[in-house]
């Protein structure tokens, strides 16, 4: 259960945010409702997220895996749920997404994807545990602009996941809306 009300004051900006969220995602996002108690935080986050959407140096699938690995390390079920849904909307293989929390024991990820998820976990650790060998492996496949973007996206996900986890936000059922259940029997 959320640790903060998901029923903020109904200002014009909150109503516009709800409308945009319903139109874009099919529902109002709980994190937006939670931070809407502080309009400056909501406005800043909205502007920041719009800016992030323009980053394009890194392959979107690598970004998705890094973001989800960070969210899994922090334990943000809302972020895992939404990240899975968002990545499936862009056609990403459900097995890769499903196996993010257990990527070390899974055989569905490429060596680069595994290096990216290891890096995401190392950046997310407190304190970070990134080492030179890890970055050197990334340099075999990614240029410096891509590594900077990867690092920044992991840091952004740390912000998102830590806020959501601290506020007690949990899955909104996004994942359930994107995969056809397997028949029983």
What does this protein structure show overall?
The protein is mainly α and 185 residues long. The chain has 9 helices and no strands. It has helices spanning 12-25, 30-35, 39-52, 60-74, 77-89, 94-98, 111-124, 132-139, 144-166. The chain is globular. The mean pLDDT is 94.
Blueprint of the fold:
Layout (H helix, E strand, L loop, with lengths): L11 H14 L4 H6 L3 H14 L7 H15 L2 H13 L4 H5 L12 H14 L7 H8 L4 H23 L19
Helix pairs in contact: 4-5, 4-7, 4-9, 7-8, 7-9
CATH A-level architecture of the largest domain: Up-down Bundle
Oligomer: single chain
What order do the helices and strands follow? HHHHHHHHH
CATH fold node name of the largest domain: AhpD-like
The main β sheet shows up as: none
What does the average pLDDT come to?
Answer: 94
State the total count of DSSP E strands: 0
Structural domain count: 2
Global outline: globular
Proportion of residues in β-strands:
under 5%
Poorly predicted tracts of residues = none
Per DSSP, the total helix count is 9
Helix coverage percent of residues?
55-70%
CATH superfamily of the largest domain: AhpD-like
Radius of gyration from the CA trace? 17 Å
């Amino acid at each position: 259960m959320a640790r903060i009300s998901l029923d903020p004051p109904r200002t014009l900006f909150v109503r516009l945010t709800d409308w945009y969220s319903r139109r874009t995602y099919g529902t109002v996002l709980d994190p937006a409702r939670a931070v809407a108690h502080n309009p400056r935080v909501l406005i800043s986050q909205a502007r920041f997220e719009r800016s992030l959407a323009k980053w394009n140096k890194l392959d979107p699938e690598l970004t998705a895996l890094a973001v989800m690995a960070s969210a899994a390390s922090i334990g943000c079920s809302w972020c895992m749920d939404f990240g899975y849904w968002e990545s499936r909307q862009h056609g990403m293989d459900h097995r890769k997404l499903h196996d993010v929390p257990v990527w070390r024991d899974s055989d569905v990820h490429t060596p680069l994807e595994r290096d990216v998820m290891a890096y995401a976990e190392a950046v997310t650790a407190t304190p970070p545990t990134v080492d030179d060998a890890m970055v050197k492996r990334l340099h075999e496949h990614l240029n410096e602009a891509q590594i900077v973007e990867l690092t920044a996206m992991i840091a952004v996900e740390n912000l998102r996941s830590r806020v959501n986890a601290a506020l007690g936000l949990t899955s909104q059922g996004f994942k359930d809306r994107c995969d056809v259940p397997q028949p029983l029997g």
